Amino acid sequence: MIARAALLALLLLGACTTDYEEDVPTRARIADSTLPPMKSFGATVGRAPVASNANIAADFISLHFELESGRALPVLTRFEGPITLRIEGAAPPSLRPDLAALLERIRREAGIPITQVSQGEASITIQAVSREEIRSALPDAACFVVPNVSSLDEFKRNKRRALTNWSLLRERHRLGIFLPYDAPPQEIRDCLHEELAQALGPLNDLYRLQDSVFNDDNMHTVLTGFDMLILKATYQPELYSGMSKDEVAARLPAILSRLNPRGDSEPSHAISPTPRKWIEDIQTALGPGAKPAARRIAAADAARIAQNLGWQDHRRAFTHYILGRMIQEEDPLLAQQHFNSALYYLQNEPGTDLHRAFIATQTAAFSLSRGNGEEALARIEPHLRVASDAQNAALLSTLMMLKAEALDLEGRHGEAEAVRLDSLGWARYGFGSDYAVRARMRDIAALSPRARNG
Are residues 259 and 381 in the same domain? Predict the structure, then answer.
């Protein structure tokens, strides 16, 4: 799983065996002394997926019977009976309300009986620890979930033992989720959504999913309607821990027909598998450790694989997006061509509004840098609602800051100041510290010719 903080910076401008690590599922005039209060999102409901139940069934099998490393899992595992959850450690202020909202959604949309408790042993223990402690346990992880442990110390003692081996698990009884308490509120929430979903259900991530948190491109950061359907299907009475892939596959059509009747009338499509080499190239391009030259080579290799396979979907768009991000400082015109290519492959694919919103931050920034405020506004406006609906405060505040600069270029200074001020509350949730918020404001303000001309 790509570390979220590093990936978020890239996107917005700018296990359990011998190989355990592979298998772990993971210019406003604002006074310097204060910023507006942090904003937070209200309740949300995931939209039902628009997809064939035949394809959803295939996705369910791939999500439940493989690990992210590609290693097969022999049986379905889940909790049997009511599920309890407890928070341990130095929980930051944002964690409890975000957790409460998520648990309410899981109960309402997925129908899973999960209850938070304040003491005693729980089915799932969420331990808030420092990012340094997480890195000491798993160097490339921002957060992670492990079976049969309730604390980070317990995980370290059993890291390479059968106790924490997902592939040896036959039923889930006790799991530990480890989140960073010293990360921005949005990063903590994003970790919470994905790791709790994996604690309850699928352990795999699939790049072919365009509308899911079970995808290491990290476009979606809160559970979608598709994700809730997968979780709800996981806990239907026809299924139980220990079932084989064939046994689960035989029962899924009836389950999905009941839960998602629309999916029976949606046309199915052929599944194009994602080659391991493409995944490895993407991980090299985005993950920690590689030098810039190696990242660029890996991204170009991934783009060639996507082209050779004839992909016309969000995976091919993602490779163009990555390449555009990598070269935009030295060759901004070629970078824009990559962004436009990404938009071309996304234009007819449902469920990719959020992908287009991320690209809009890059194309709008380019328009802004060329002094074209009107064009920048046209690129930004359609995506503000998308970012808000996706509850992505980092993306929303970035778009709003870009909009403020574009309004200034158009001479609409009063509107610009209001939008800029409004963006800061979202930026505090998305980026965390006042320093990080002000740094983002400075970076975006510097794009405008107004700043370059003094």
Answer: no
